[in-house]
Amino acid sequence: MTVSKVKMSLRSNTASNCRRTRSMKKSTKKNHGLRDSVEGGFSLVELMVALVIGLLIVLGAGQLYLTSKQSYNRMDNLAKRQESLRVISDLVSFDVRTSVEITNNSADQTVLNMTYDSGVRSNDPYCGSANNLLEVRYSFVSPELMIQVRCDPDASLSSSQSLIEGIEGVNFNVELDASGTTGDGLFVQITVIFPEIGPSEPLEKRQYTFMVARRNNILH
Fold it and tell me: Where are the transmembrane segments (predicted)?
């Protein structure tokens, strides 16, 4: 091999090595740029967007929970109101229908007194198996409907016991018969008022009125 050929070969190898070196440097720069981008994390704008989205999700979940809780509380209160009204209707209606005399012992019509003939209410749950029920008195003492009973002819009325709680008002209106005698009233109109469920519930939606006839007077 001549000297000129050796020189040309060396120049060719040198040029090839230079190109390879430049290519490696470019590749190294690209890798460094990619690594720097990955290690840099999210930008400030991306973080703010993520925070806003997270806040909206939390607010939506909170609003849904609050709405569900309010709806549940309302349904629960309505169920309790319905149950209280059912108990009042069943008990008072039966006591009125089987009575022989009814008196309203208060000017504001919050007390209803009823008496019974001996044997009409024998073995009554109020008295047990030992005596007959002779007298029942309902009275409203806010926020409760109270009851008193008398089973012994020689005894007085029992102490007041709470029958229903959570009532705003109870009214007993005894309808007189043609003679104008209170004790011979044919009907008792009973009005029950419950507390508001939710803000500004109108009175007509929480006031219930029903009328009960005395069975003995109607049949005679």
Answer: 47-66
